[in-house]
Write a structure and sequence with these properties.
Helices cover 40% and strands 25% of the residues. By secondary structure, it is an alpha/beta fold. The strands form three sheets. A six-stranded mixed β-sheet has the order 10-11-6-2-1-12, sandwiched between helices. The protein has a three-stranded mixed β-sheet with strand order 4-3-5. α1 crosses α10 and α4 crosses α9.
């Protein structure tokens, strides 16, 4: 059977506002039938704290620390919690809700899309698998996360390696299109990450950071050989092709498309209204 061809965009390191604007633009263009389903890889310049659509900045985020570390800051169009985008490969997948291979529920679609990431980890020689919350307590915890830190809580079909979370993803559905994007950690500066959030007390912060070590891990902490960005890109590109049974065709944005994204980045993702008011 002939494999379906999807677009593949490697946009390299971009500003926080451009990254979120391009994901949104791809969703719009796909909903208008202008582009096929698309997978995109990207990085962040500067390193950035992104927060979920529903997060409250004043209550949860230590903006002084964000400034001190010279980080970018942006609100995502997807839910979930705070993510420090630094030593990671970020991916996004844009595909119609009506796609024959896409299940109707968010949870099941998440599993299908994440199959590509699973295969990527396996391609790098890591024992990755999906963990499903087993107890009622775990399932309840998914509905009411206690922490503002994304990698702190498992979600349905979490991708884990050696029992710890290695990739965090978020999904939104708009205009009949699924946008799922997420972080695949190569390395992680835990102290920096934990300095970016507000806590009731120093003791709570310490306790959460200690617990975090048992729940999340970066690839280079557990890999038998150092994983470079190039290795990761190759492994996950192959992983998506195998996991979703597709072929990826490289694509570069036209000048007109780039300008559209730049304008959207300015008008929405650089605005105080968008980033701080919730």
């Amino acid at each position: 059977m002939k494999k379906e061809t999807w677009r593949f965009i490697d946009s390299g390191n971009c500003s926080p506002s451009y990254n979120m604007a391009l994901d949104e633009a791809l969703l719009d263009w796909h909903s208008e039938g202008k582009i096929p389903p698309t997978i995109r890889f990207y990085g962040w310049d500067p390193a950035t704290l992104s927060i979920g659509y529903f997060q409250k900045v004043e209550k949860e985020i230590n903006l002084e620390a964000v400034k001190e570390h010279k980080l970018g800051f942006v609100r995502r169009p997807t839910g979930g919690r705070g993510v420090l985008h630094e030593h990671e490969l970020t991916y996004s997948v844009i595909v119609s809700e009506e796609h024959p291979e896409m299940p109707k529920t968010v949870t099941e679609a998440y599993r299908v899309i994440s199959e590509g990431i699973l295969k990527g980890f396996q391609g790098l020689g890591l024992e990755a698998y999906f963990a499903v919350p087993k107890t009622a307590e775990e399932r309840e915890g998914l509905k009411n996360p206690r922490s503002a830190v994304c990698f702190d809580a498992p979600s349905w079909y979490e991708l884990v390696v050696e029992g710890r979370k290695v990739a965090g993803s978020a999904q939104t559905r708009q205009k009949g299109v699924i946008l799922q994007h997420g972080s695949i950690l190569l390395d992680l500066d835990e102290d920096k990450l934990f300095s970016l959030f507000k806590y009731p007390s120093e003791r709570v912060k310490e306790r959460m950071q200690k617990a975090f070590k048992n729940k999340a891990v970066a690839m280079n902490e557990i890999s038998h050989h150092p994983v470079t960005m190039e290795m990761a890109k190759e492994a996950f590109k192959n992983g998506f092709e195998e996991g979703l049974n597709i072929e990826l065709e490289p694509y570069v944005l036209t000048e007109e498309e780039t300008q559209y994204v730049v304008d959207l980045a300015k008008s929405r993702y650089e605005s105080e209204e968008w980033n701080f008011k919730r």
